Amino acid sequence: MRFAYPMQKFQDWMTQQWVILRGRKIKPEDFPWLMGPFGNLDAIGEDFIHKFAEKENLIIQKDSKAKGIIPAMQKLNLSEAEFSNLSKSVIEFYEKTDNYNLQFSVHWNPFFKLFGILINKLFSNRINQLNIPTKNIDDSEFLKSEIINLIDVNTNEIKYTFWFRSIKSSGQVIYSGVYGISNLPSGKTCVKAVFPLPNGNATVLMNPSIGENGELILDSSGKKFGDAGFYFLLKDSKGDYWSQFISSFRDRLIIGSQNDIISAEQTLTLWHLKVLTFKYTIELKK
To answer: Are 168 and 142 contacting, i.e. CB atoms less than 8 angstroms apart?
Structure first.
């Protein structure tokens, strides 16, 4: 039996041990579609980005011409009909994310609110990652949204794109994720988001489709390992890699535009029960 790395917070060790017990051992070279940056034991938020760049010999670039979480939406490999129907405003947002201001509201299912409070106290507040407010926010709260590219010093190409988001009024970090695209074993192209955690990460892979009104629908409702969905990854005490596919947890995002205003609704569910809903208003910076 394998064990998680011992010299860390007990709650981190326990969750990693759970992944080892319930997940599968993998070789990174066999799963390129799944791999992404792992977090340190002592830094996850913006501090981690600086330490990670130094470790990987990458240059941090905050004001590059590449401002989007996806470099080109055509890389999602949508059909010609789907791409022509996709809202041009949505394309612009994904390709030039840094040019936009975001406001959001949060609505919890009261049955899951205690679970959210527990996760924040045990993990999120400490590591500045997946740090979702546990109080409902009815009025739109402004987010500080920043695109941070990490550049390969030899090729001058972007190797990782971090989307760093925090609440403007409090400075509370919500997400620090690496965004891009990934091709699943089936050949399907997905939007990929990797959230570094201590000695591992949480990775979400979402299938794209286009709605009747040109909205982009991203859905992580896969059924098995290798599908779109939510994955934990980690390294054990001997440096071997493990992953677990969490089929019960799903993320669905619908983003569209009307009258030059972009809006989005993101719904997280567990065992097909709604956990919480985010609503976003997205506008060009003035």
So the answer is: yes
Which residue in the block uniquely carries the two structure tokens 């994310």?
Answer: 97
Q: Is 154 exposed, middle or buried (0-12, 13-18, 19+ CB in 10 A)?
A: exposed
Q: Exposure pattern of 78-100 as b/e (b: 16+ CB <10 Å)?
A: beeeeeeebbebbbbbbbbbbeb
Adjacent-strand bridge partners of 131: none
Phi/psi of residue 73, each to 5°? -65, -20
What pLDDT, in 10s, does the model give residues 145-204? 899 999 998 998 999 999 988 888 888 888 888 999 999 999 999 999 999 888 899 999
pTM above 0.90, yes or no: yes
Contact 254, 215 (CB under 8 A): yes
Among 150, 198, 204, 147, residue whose Cα is nearest residue 176: 147
- Count of alpha carbons within 13 angstroms of residue 181, beta-carbon side: 19
